[in-house]
Structure formats: structure tokens, C-alpha cells
Amino acid sequence: MSYKLFLSHSSKDEKVVNAFVSFMYKIGLIEKDIVCSSVPETKIAIGNDIYAYLNQLISDENIYAIYFLSDNYYASPVCLNEMGAVWLRKADSLSILLPGFDFNDVQGVVERNKVGIKLGTCDNMTKAAFNEFLKILNDKFGIHPNQTHWENARDEFLNLTLENNRKFNMAFARSYCIDDLENDGCKIIKKESNQEKITAIINFEKTESKLCSIVVFAEKRNFTNYIANDRNLCFEAYISEGITFLDIEICLNGIDVSYEIYLNEDLREFKIPLAQFQSTFMFWKDVSELKFVFHRKNFSGERKVIIENLRIE
Questions:
Q1: With 0-12 CB in 10 A as exposed, 13-18 as middle and 19+ as buried, what is 255?
Q2: If you average pLDDT over residues 72-83, what whole number do you get?
Q3: Which of 31, 82, 182, 196 is labelled catalytic?
Q4: Which residues does residue 22 pair with via DSSP β-bridges, in sequence order?
Q5: Which residues form the TIR domain (predicted)?
Q6: What is the value of pTM for the model shown?
């Protein structure tokens, strides 16, 4: 029984997928084993209707589908149609999460509790997951690369996909006034649909709290790759009426580590080396949240704050 490896992905993620196809070639798969729209020798032929072709492929062939999941994937109607078609066919599949995308972000017919592989690290857990994937390839495609060749090809691919950049989803940001359950002194009034910008109003006259904060949750991420590669915390920010000092805090293993900046009426771009917060690797294994902390002593009246494009690069 012959199989085809069907790679469902967004065209915007073709760099990673092309590297994956090269990885597959190195361990013994050949062109006829793979269907991938972004690689010339495996793409759907010109003139074919993509939906008709995929429908026929999924109906007539024994396929093993790999979903390369990302924000780009879920923004693509073509990708979602492919996912739905594979699901209806009840074909075997594997989810590979691209750097910057996490299991909590998985939607659609892919089950969150179905084990997949997350790219972005080259640790023992990820290597072990790919070793399990090799067993599937052995079974369906009959390839048996020697151990050294397999490990070299696997690690080369994983190192190409190390997560060195990340954008934070601002849609889940929250505003707080410390020891004030009403939080009237700090209110997020607008979250942009693109999830990259928030606008908040801060007024210490509406609270007895000495501190107000805007918190962006990181969902307990491992940032050791970022600190190892000398990455920076980057964003743009603005505050109305004058200059204000505030603290940027990152929660590392349950401990808040801060860095002071100032905002003014110009939309400023910030680029803060992560090592300025903490340079020891072990602290970056568990990052749960980032905070923009405002102090009563630095405020007067009502002020508007804009924070946008929060990212690691």
C-alpha cells in the first residue's frame, strides 16, 4: 500500500516547509512521495483546479497529512479547506506547530489534546518527538535511514527553525490597579482587531492604588532560545501630555524583574536587550507575563497610553 505525504501549509510559511521537504529527501523520501504546493517538483501542476485535485488526492490516495500550523495557516481559507477535507476523509495526520505558535492556539478540527510537534527548539523532547515521527515514516513509506544520518538531518532541520522572533497577542492584555478590585484607575479602552495594539486610559484620581499596570500574558513560555541568541524586547509606545517614567516587568520563574523607561507624546520605538532584565539562562525557562507598570508619583490627571507591536527580535 503506497502513501503520499501531504503538506498542508500557508504560502507565507514556505521557508520552513521547504526546509522540511529537503529534510524528507535527505532521509529517503522521493518526489512522488510528497505533495507540497510551495516546492516546484512536488507542487500541483499548472492548469489543475486546486480544490478538485486535492479532493481527488484525498479520495483516491492513502495520504498522511501534516498540518504546519501558524497564525498564517488559520488566516488562509485554502488551508482550512485542506484541513476540513483531510478530517472528513479520516486520514492520519500530524500537527507541526511553527515557531511562535503554541498548542493553546490550535483551533478547528485538529484536537488540542492530540500530540503534535512544536518547532522552535532543538531540545531532547523535540528530538524524541521526531524520532516517533520517523517510526511513522518507516511504517508508511518504508524508509530506514541509519541512526547517524537520521540524527544529523533531524538536528539540521531543527536548528534551521529555532524560534528567534516572536510577536505577542495583545488581545488578551488586562489592566489592573494593585489592591483595587474595581481597577477604575487603569482601563483598556480599545484592542485592535489585528491583536498588535492596545489603548488604555490611566487616572490615579479614580483609585487609591499606588500602582497601575497593563499585563500581557505569555502563557508560561520558554525564552531560553531568545536569551541565548541575544534577542531584544521591542515595542512602540506613547503617552499623552508630557513625560512619564514606568517600569517594564517580566515575570521569570515567578519573580518580577524590571527595567525603567520613559514615555512622552511622541510614539517611540523601544529595543531592550533581554539580558538587561536577567542574563542567567535558567530564569528564562518559565516566562508567564510582561507588565507595563505605572506609578502614582509619576502621574497627574488623566493620560492616554498606546502600546503596540510588542515582540521579541
A1: exposed
A2: 87
A3: 82
A4: none
A5: 1-141
A6: 0.58
